[in-house]
Every structure is written in structure tokens, then in C-alpha cells.
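>> received
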Amino acid sequence: MIRFQGITKTYQMGKRELEVLRGINLEIKQGEMVAIMGPSGSGKTTLLNITGCLDIPTGGSYYLDGKEVSHLKSGELARVRSEKIGFIFQTFNLLPHMSALANVVLGMRYVPGADHQRDRALAALGKVGLAERASHRPTELSGGEQQRVAIARAIAKDPPLVLADEPTGNLDSRSGGELMEVLTALHQDRGITLVMITHDASVAHHCQRIVHLMDGQVVAEETV
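>> returned
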């Protein structure tokens, strides 16, 4: 599903260069649930952004579903994102004036041939246990419920890959635990590939494998 070969990423900071990723070699198989851990500045977010086709590497090759996407143009990257990738963010990123259902439908606006968006959105909300809350706005939902809406938005278009950036970061331990149960069940039910950034070891241990980054390199991998 995902294969990184010698991925590097360097940012120009005035007159100096900041090397964030320094030769990442990593494979993630279809259907795996993988956590990426590491201290601040280790390159986790940069790697996730490249995985999600939100950024491109400075060097190396990134293969997604057997196709190299390392150097695609912006329009081609947008097409890959719309067809293959769902995103879950720490801050939920829901529009406050829209209902839960409308927020999920909005996530499918660039999906080709999505003629039954409302039905698909309702089905996704049902998968995360929020079908009866579909008409509620984010301000009428708890933090855990808002994040479940964000999960529904990510899975409604049925992407083969879901990326989660600190999905429990804004939740208390109970809500975070419930959220991980939802994600684990979805992973098992749908066979999606799920890649997650987290600082929380208890969250990471819901995954099948943990990849540890340090100073822009993979320093260890462990099977859970």
C-alpha cells in the first residue's frame, strides 16, 4: 500500500536549510494499522503530510498503491487525495454552522460519481454511532462526538487509506479510549489501512505496529 524509499525533506529557512526527514525507508501493507511515534521535531507531521499527498518530498520515492506519487503536480495530488485518502485531524476541523450530516457530506464534495452522498454520509455516521445525532451542529456535540463526526467524514467516501493526526489529542482519557475502539472496529470491519500519529503509548498499542522516529529517521519498529 505504502512504500517509502530514501525519503528526504528539506525546508529553506532564510539562508539555511532545515533537514526534517533524512532518508526514510518504510513499508506499510494494505490493511495494516500503524502508529508513528517520536518526540517533537522528529518529522512525524512532515511524514504524514507526504503520506497524505499534502506535501512532496525533496528526495526519494513514495509509492502509493504501486504508483509513484512523489513528484506529481498539485492537481494530480488533489485527485489522489480525493480518491484514496481520508483525513482525521486533532482539532476536528468541522464547520460550526453546519450539521454533523452536512459536515460529512462536505467531505465528499470532490468525489467523482458520488450521487448518493447523503445516504453514504448517514451510513458513515451510523458506523460511528451517531446516526441519531446527524442533525446536530458541532457545538451541540461533545468533543468525542465531534471527533467521531470527523471519522465519519474520513470514511464516507470509502478510501483505502485513512490518516489520523493525534486523533485523541483533544480528548479526555475516557473519550480517547472510546474513540480508539471505534477506529479499531472500523479498521477490522472495512480492512482499511490506518496510519496514525500519536504521543500516547496507550493509543499506539491499539495498532498492529509502532514506528519510532528520531531526528527525521526511523530508529525502531515494533509489532504490538
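>> The first strand starts at residue 2 and ends at 13.
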